[in-house]
Amino acid sequence: MNERIKALYKTHIIEKAKDETHTGQLTDATHVIEAYNPLCGDQFTLYLKVEDDVVKELKFNGYGCSISKASTAVLAESILGKSLTDFGKVWSDFMEIVNENAKASPEQISNNEYLLAFAAAREFPERKTCATLSWEALAKALITH
Amino acid sequence: MTNHFPIFSKHTPLGQPLIYLDSAASTQKPQVVIDTITDFYTNEYASTGRGSYWPANAASAKYEQVRHQVASFLNAKSDREIVFTSGTTDAINKVARSFVYPTLSPGDCVVTTTMEHHSNYLPWQQICKEKKCELVVAPLNQNGILNTLALEAQLAKGAKFLALTAVSNVLGTQNDVTAIVSLAHQYDVPVLVDAAQAVAHYTIDVQAWDCDFLVFSGHKCYGSTGVGVLYGKTDYLAEMQPANYGGGMVQKVNTIDSSFRPIPHKHEAGTPNVAGVIGLGAALEFLQKKGLENVYEHEQALTVYALNQLAAMDSVTIYGSVEQRGPVISFNLDGVHPHDLSTFLNEQGICIRAGHHCAQPLMQWLDVAATARVSFGMYNTKVDIDQLVAGLKSAYQFFR
């Protein structure tokens, strides 16, 4: 096993890919968001219940690789209970962490180990879309709203 | 065999030997093809069919010589039946737009199959949509073989055209093209055969198959990208309007109207991919020197070996039939997403494909979002497959 693979599939990613805490759907969601990658067919549906700008509940279901599943799970954890305004900062941090052209090192951007687990995506640009799939879809949907 | 292919003398960026298992997407290039293209650009480059000077006439002669070579490779009746295109997709779009589209009236139907690549699916879907026609997608039997009874029922209803692949790029299913074409002709339905996955692997005989059109890409048979072939029966190609208009295909142009050159040139508007065509000539010659029978035998042996190795792993699900299969195997490793698998194997120098393989209708039929796929070329060996199997075993352990 080489070190690059170990770095990409950190324990946190393998763990979060299997974590079903936020798996499911909400019947009273205020937002239903489709995250779909036409290149690989990965697809998640995110159900959010937002009240007074605060994300009260989030569930998701769908199909994807370890990285996209884990990043969706981490997204759920990062946004739950936060106001959308506060979440903006986390969102930008995450995008910078996976951005291979970012000037700052991942550790300079955040100290959240679950966000940092995706930093190896910088070494695997072809897998960056997996890491950002649900994050991008969420931002696009919320901005549209 | 790998000694003919310079890429195999290199190592991957991580320093491993390259194990290339994605020839169904594109084959690697033999030195002779690279040299032929380089030589053409270096020593006698000019465009074709225009200049009356050396090297233009030399280039034109070579270009037409490859047309003759392709005609003979496919056992076409005449060189006029060979049109150079930019690839399979271009060739299918030409037939869809310029041959089939004008014949369609609302309510007509065009038939294709569940195992088609998007390039033999979307052109038909779109013209049917525009003409308010129905695109019928012929179903497969449980083992991934075309259901010919259901196909015949559709043909009998008065289909206008049948577009079918010779070999599925996902399941590897090798269709009995001769029988299917003969069935379609009983109902006067013309047939296009997508030979993209056949051309590098076994002998094509358009007269024996009796197909009306046949298409393939150069880059899947050891040639360069950007070149392909449209074979069409003389009468059909003559009847077909040009899909593109421009230089090189005209007889006479005036401000009111114009006349066009006879086939095949009326279908080749614009400066063609001359170097690509000349490279294709070298690729086909290379294939013929190796002998398609030998290539077929070698790749079939590899496919059977790989199928046996994969079938011996409880964690592997193989899609499609074991019989009548080209050198393509789609599978999934239990609990491991194909993209994770592909990234994992890439770190060991093993190139496999992951995803929907441009065949989403087939993925829906298989009821999977994606599969892993390995496919073989003449340069692959049992050692490659042993490495693959070892890689699959360690991936399984890693991701579980």
Structure description:
The complex is a heterodimer of chains A (145) and B (400). Chain A is an alpha+beta fold. Chain A has helices at 3-8, 11-18, 66-79, 84-98, 106-109, 113-116, 128-144; strands spanning 31-36, 43-51, 54-63. Chain A has a single domain (3-144), classed as Sufe protein. Chain: A (Alpha-Beta Complex). Chain A is built from seven helices and three strands, in the order ααβββααααα. Chain A has a three-stranded antiparallel sheet with strand order 1-2-3, covered by helices on one side. In chain A, helix 2 crosses helix 3 (66-79) and helix 3 crosses helix 7 (128-144). Chain A starts with a helix and ends with a helix. Chain B has 400 residues and is an alpha/beta fold. Chain B folds into two domains: 2-26 and 292-399, Aspartate Aminotransferase, domain 1, CATH 3.90.1150; 33-289, Aspartate Aminotransferase, domain 2. Helix content of chain B is 38%, strand content 15%. Chain B contains 13 helices and 15 strands. Chain B has helices at 31-43, 56-74, 88-100, 122-130, 148-156, 177-186, 206-209, 234-239, 274-290, 292-311, 338-346, 360-366, 382-399; strands at residues 19-20, 82-85, 109-113, 134-138, 161-165, 191-194, 213-217, 228-232, 250-253, 258-260, 316-318, 328-333, 350-351, 353-355, 371-375. In chain B, helix 1 runs antiparallel to helix 9 (274-290) and helix 10 runs parallel beside helix 13 (382-399). Chain B is globular and about 70 Å long. The two termini of chain B are 37 Å apart. In chain B, 52% of the residues are buried. Classes of the chains: A alpha+beta (145), B alpha/beta (400). Chains A and B meet through helix 1 of A and helix 11 and helix 13 of B.
How are the elements arranged and paired?
The complex is a heterodimer of chains A (145) and B (400).
Chain A: H1 3-8, H2 11-18, E1 31-36, E2 43-51, E3 54-63, H3 66-79, H4 84-98, H5 106-109, H6 113-116, H7 128-144
Antiparallel strand pairs in A: 1-2, 2-3
Chain B: E1 19-20, H1 31-43, H2 56-74, E2 82-85, H3 88-100, E3 109-113, H4 122-130, E4 134-138, H5 148-156, E5 161-165, H6 177-186, E6 191-194, H7 206-209, E7 213-217, E8 228-232, H8 234-239, E9 250-253, E10 258-260, H9 274-290, H10 292-311, E11 316-318, E12 328-333, H11 338-346, E13 350-351, E14 353-355, H12 360-366, E15 371-375, H13 382-399
Parallel strand pairs in B: 1-13, 3-4, 3-5, 5-6, 6-7
Antiparallel strand pairs in B: 2-8, 7-8, 9-10, 11-12, 12-15, 14-15
Helix pairs in contact in B: 1-9, 2-9, 10-13
